[in-house]
Amino acid sequence: MQKTQATRPFSEIDGPRGRPFVGLAPDFLRDPISVLTEGFERYGDLVAYPFGPRRGPLRNVVVAAYHPDAVQFVLTETERTIGRGPSSTRVLGEMIGSNLMTTDGAEWRRQRRTLQPLFTPRRVAHYTELMHREAERIATEDVPGPGSEVDLHLLMLRYSLRMVGAALFSSNIDHIGPELHQLIPLTNDLIIARTTTPVRLPLGVPTRSNRRFERVHRQLYSLIDRIIAQRDGHPADEERDDILTRLRTARDPETGDGLSSQEIRDQTLLMMMAGHETTATALTFALHQLGRYQDIQDAVAGDGTDGTDGAGGTDPVSVVDHAQRRDTLTRATLLETMRLHPPVYMTEHAATEDIELGGHHIPAGTALFLSPWVTHRHPDFWPDAERFDPTRFLGAQDRHRYAYLPFGGGPHVCIGEHFALLAATVLLSTLLRHYRITVSSSEIAIQQTGNLRPDEPVLATLHPR
Ligand code: HEM
């Protein structure tokens, strides 16, 4: 680390005191978004949060960086002086194996090199027709009837599961929906509990919590094995062009090595878990916002159909063509939704060497938090931050590149970003061409374990247009 004269010591980073011995751990486990937001409002761009004693050998102080300059530093230094949060990554690995989210260094680079070509915008565009087919099915087969009330989140989970199932396995995986939707929050809870426990016994020690952890781990793998076996057991009429086939034939461009079958299980399980719920959450919040703001909804419904799509078009365009365009109100609506409700509202990192961040010295080993939720509301970068205004994302934008990070950034940027945005754009366009949506409540109660998700059904009425 290059220390400048002005570098201030770690101990001078301000932050809440927390409770004796345990610091803010209980408050954080209960309501992380409030702890992060209040820390920023009170102490500013860099905040020290005690998660144990503030001093002594058991000291555990986590630093949250909210200013886009510091966000940029953390994300772009990743794989150099900054790595993943060690405990959460280790525990995630115990649950879902060795994959892009649980490795770093040379092993992660090898995996990323091999998988990256599967997720380029051009490659992902091949799935647009398939996404449109699944979106039409949702609009025509899954909405109970004209003027009926639906749970938007359930509907979006169904869409994103079908879409992920079709893209990953060319299979209809509707039948695993109930099991998976029960397993995802359970998995999150177990991972958080094991990450934050003061004494983490090896999984081989048969404590009650270890046995539960192992049981859920086995259930997840049994699920992925059943899906793969079901898919392989059905001969395809034509050559399949799904992600599983591509994983099986993918080669590391540097060494020519392929992935083992265990690695393929781990990566597909990760993609199913990482891609499915996050996309559904983004869509649920987007539809809910549009239910609140009917004028914006009408504009999005007309986007692409009346020649005023912001992309200079003058003819109505199909959902599939419209989804390929970048500067559209539909896409801007999704981006603005994820500004206010980023499905991944916080990420954890750690300094692997001594660094300087926000003018302070940070010793190696310190855990670092970034929070899209807080940075996306930073008043210096987002005027009138609480206002839902998709036009922020239309046309030329000269804001700080790291003031917006729903998909992270730097080397570990979300590999599924283009896929998720495309799938969500297609669904939004399709559904709004069929229905006008009104919502029953102006707010969505939020559950914050793991990722963001609605805590209760998000009720809406779909009126045929
Ligand atoms: C709206 C939907 C999504 C959101 C908001 C989202 C968000 C994120 C974020 C913030 C990260 C960085 C995490 C970190 O730095 O610790 C990430 C990483 C990742 N995401 Fe996504 N994601 C979404 C959809 C998807 C989809 C559809 C897939 C898979 C097909 C996916 C697969 C991954 C993987 C594999 C990583 C790890 C990348 C690496 O470290 O190399 N995500 N995602």
UniProtKB/TrEMBL annotation:
GO terms for molecular function: heme binding; iron ion binding; monooxygenase activity; oxidoreductase activity, acting on paired donors, with incorporation or reduction of molecular oxygen. Its cofactor is heme. It holds the Pfam family p450. Gene3D superfamilies: Cytochrome P450. Heme binds at C414. Keywords: Heme, Iron, Metal-binding, Monooxygenase, Oxidoreductase. Belongs to the cytochrome P450 family. This is Cytochrome P450.
